[in-house]
Amino acid sequence: MRASKANNDLKWVRTFDYEDGLPYGKINCLVTDSANYVYIGTVNGVYYYNGIKIKPLASLCAIDSIAEVLGSEVFDMVAHGASMVYIGLSSGLVAFNKEDNSFRLIKNSPKGNSIQNNYIRSLYIANNTLYAGNWYGYSTINLADGSIKNFQLPAQANNKFAQCVTSLYHYAPKKLAYCGHMERRPLCFRQLGQHCKAFAKHAWPSRRFGGSRVNCQAFLQ
Fold first, then answer.
1. Counting beta carbons within 10 angstroms of the beta carbon of residue 16, is it exposed (0 to 12), middle (13 to 18) or buried (19 or more)?
2. In what order do the strands lie in the sheet with 45-49?
3. Which of 156, 154, 159, 147 is nearest to 179 (CA)?
4. Average pLDDT of 66-80?
5. In this structure, are residues 187 and 198 in contact, taking their beta carbons and an 8 Å threshold?
6. First CA to last CA across the chain, in angstroms?
7. CA-to-CA distance for 74 and 93, rounded, in angstroms?
8. Coil, helix or strand for 127?
9. Which residues contact 71 (CB under 8 A, 6 or more apart)?
10. pLDDT digit string (tens) for 78-105?
11. At 14, which helix (H) or strand (E)?
12. Cβ pair 75, 26 in contact under 8 A
């Protein structure tokens, strides 16, 4: 870690690098919890900073199968309540409870009540419900009872990226989910009746949403 003075001479900036425990590769996302721990999502797994050291989160996990998932690419994370952090990875969704250092892996399963895909690109929490954008659309997880519902976006011929949701925003008053995805237009997804509507093509730039996180809240303005 290095301390360097900013150009305006008013602030000091801390720089963390490999000597501090960061892995090689880019950082995709960051989140902090109520105790001001910093969680760092990278292409080589999730790390945490407790104010002293940077360590892989997998070092706290005693379950090998979950520790392996924690070492895969992280796309998004969200903190909830006093101790929970939800981590969206390329091979599943992990719930971490810092209060007792416990982990729970949420994956697709043929047994039912599971997410529809393990490629978790985006996360959002509203009304005690976790929204998880994935390769085929998004899943909702009721954080009170654990029940799961899946919503699939329309498929498109010769476009394997069309259903992948890279950003989410839930608008509770009208029960709408706004989805930024790997196609040219964001989608408005009405959960009641599972109706999906694409925004007008002329209203949006002719580029893909997916290279970076899309702020779906702006779609409401």
1. middle
2. 27-32, 38-42, 45-49, 54-56
3. 154
4. 96
5. yes
6. 41
7. 10
8. coil
9. 44, 45, 56, 58
10. 999 889 999 999 999 999 999 999 999 9
11. strand 12-15
12. no
